[in-house]
TrEMBL record:
<keyword id="KW-0732">Signal</keyword>
<dbReference type="InterPro" id="IPR015943">
    <property type="entry name" value="WD40/YVTN_repeat-like_dom_sf"/>
</dbReference>
<feature type="signal peptide">
    <location>
        <begin position="1"/>
        <end position="26"/>
    </location>
</feature>
<protein>
    <recommendedName>
        <fullName>YncE family protein</fullName>
    </recommendedName>
</protein>
Amino acid sequence: MRRLTAVSWIALPLAGALVLSGCSSAKDTSDELQIVANPQAARPAVSPAVSVKPAGQVLPGGAVSALAVDAKTSTLVVALSEPPSLRLYDLNALASAPMNMPLYGKAEKLTVTPGRVEIAEPAQGVVQRLSLPDRKLTETKTGGQPASSIAYGADRLVAMGPAKDIQVLPAAGPARTIGGQLYSADDVVDTGTGVVVLDRLRTAVFSLDVAAGKVNEGLRAGDGAANAVADSYGRVLVTDARAGALIAFSASPLIMRQRYPVPGAPYGIAYDAKRSLAWVTLTERNEVVGFDVRGGEPVEKYRFPTVRQPDSVGVDESSGRVLVGSAAGEGTQVIQP
């Protein structure tokens, strides 16, 4: 796959793009990355009532806490907040009733590798693995509050939220922990060229050296880093919910490549590698926008009205369909661009 090497157009000021090597205390006011005395993680903006009919089809259901798509098995996985559960839809037969699977607790993050979904349930100190198409759940107790989990070769990497570290869970043998510099380990992203950790509390991204067991340099990710996803070009794309921006970082080395203004409180993000489209939800506007990210700056290709409180988004790369989940309980939206 092609990789961008030139520094791309940057639309917003770069005052916050500082390399960090400070200590791990959130109270250290000498930390150049910390932008307020008492940092708070970015949250989605509260959405207004829907004023435009949502595009496409809306599947009824409760409040969606996360969603993901496994294109390999044409499965849409929707995590519901109450009761904590999964709904599994066949994307080739959406009129059919979904399969319901109970969870121990609310799923905050779903991450897909083909034929496998990682489920983080922080309140229960558990990550689960859903295998597809057999629909088998396997649990791993991590303790603490796991915020996200991904497959990493034969291992798993688990971002441990307020524990400020990453757990490396091997297929066999004891787990090990990688920490340092983080205020909160909220997500971990494997770009194929490097691993990056998202720290919402510090509103920053950090390079993770898994083999050496080290958290390396960090960079500010706007004023309110919310969610992150890898693209096809060795980069991590991050939504800045507070300043309204889509930010791109190369992973190896960790360098800010783009910072593009996106008004409307961008929050959820998903990536379609087949079409080089980043889909971003705007919770302040009840919209989802598709950006072509192949060039020197994102180019808007699509914009659709959504269900209220569109905190979650996924994409089916086989068809290009976009899936949007309503955290307000207004269903799961299916859009064919």
